[in-house]
Amino acid sequence: MRSIWNGAISFGLVSxxxxxxxxxxxxxxxxxxxxxxxxxxxxxxxxxxxxxxxxTQSEIGKAYxxxxxxxxxxxxxxxxxLPLPTARTIEIVxxxxxxRIDPLQMDAAYYLAAGGAAAAKPYTLLREALKRSQKVAxxxxxxxxxxxxxxxxxxxxxxxxxxxxxxxxxxxxxxxAPDTDVTVNDKELDLADALMDTLGEIDxxxxxxxxxxxxxxxxxxxxAGEAPPEAPEPARGGKVLDLMAALEKSVRAAKESxxxxxxxxxxxxxxxxxxxEVRRLPARKSAxxxxxxxxxxxxxxxxxxxxxxxxxxxTAAAKKSTAKTAQxxxxxxSSARKTTAAKTTSAAKTTxxxxxxxxxxxxxxxTAxxxxx
Length: 373
Prior knowledge:
With 373 residues, this protein is of the alpha+beta class. It has helices at 76-80, 120-133, 186-199, 210-223, 243-257, 275-280, 296-372, and strands spanning 3-11, 14-22, 47-48, 53-54, 62-65, 71-74, 89-97, 106-114, 135-143, 146-155, 158-164. A hairpin with a 2-residue loop joins strand 1 (3-11) and strand 2.
């Protein structure tokens, strides 16, 4: 990697010679401007307004334009003698926890390479000190014509420098957040947590620039004289008015994309906004994760659910009435049978009693006759 800046890190009284190299690179595809009629290149030429002629890069310098339009030339020698200690030095001013740095301030990233064998010892000392303290160094340095703020941290076995915006360069988020009062209930938060857990984590190395890949396909097809690939039609989703339904659908979609069963975790009681349908229809429990219909469909579904409920109630009442009638008939028949049996038994007992009394009377008469004889 080619160095873009040479200087030193000022660590108290310790000076560490370093070279600054870019830590990032751009893979974006760049385009040229052309004349659409004949394909000719469109170029921007640097022309001197006073002489009305194109000038070369070696003839171009820097200047500051004053408020009244006065041009004040500034040479490279003037910039080299700036009265700043950070002109060729990365001056560490403090060590702070990494959490103290607002990510909004993060700018370009660079690697700091040790400038020669003599810099290896102090370079390693600073790197190990940053590791053990679990802190980052805040520094000031001058690059490309202005003083900048930076953050030094350890990346692997190297020290990285992140350019930082000055605090007054970060805008306050005034007027960005919604100005209306919105209340989020616990059930919506539970579904949001379930969606976060389902999506889980991801290895950032697995992410890639799909736009650039698609653009390369288009360029390759055009170069081969073929028709460029057509873009797939975007999925047309219905307008979801219910946030709960949208969260439930998102959880199911995330699980299906990971090959899991679409179980609506945390969706218990999610449809309590319509308690009549949820509490009275057990079959609705498995359908809580189903997105709610909008407009007339919703009212139709509600009316159908009411009709089904009424039909079930009528059928149940009819069954109960029939059962009660049957039970009453059975009880009446049983009572009749018992009464008939009781009467028959009583009559039998009376007849038997009469026969026994007659036999006893006859026996007494016979005995009396014998005695008289």
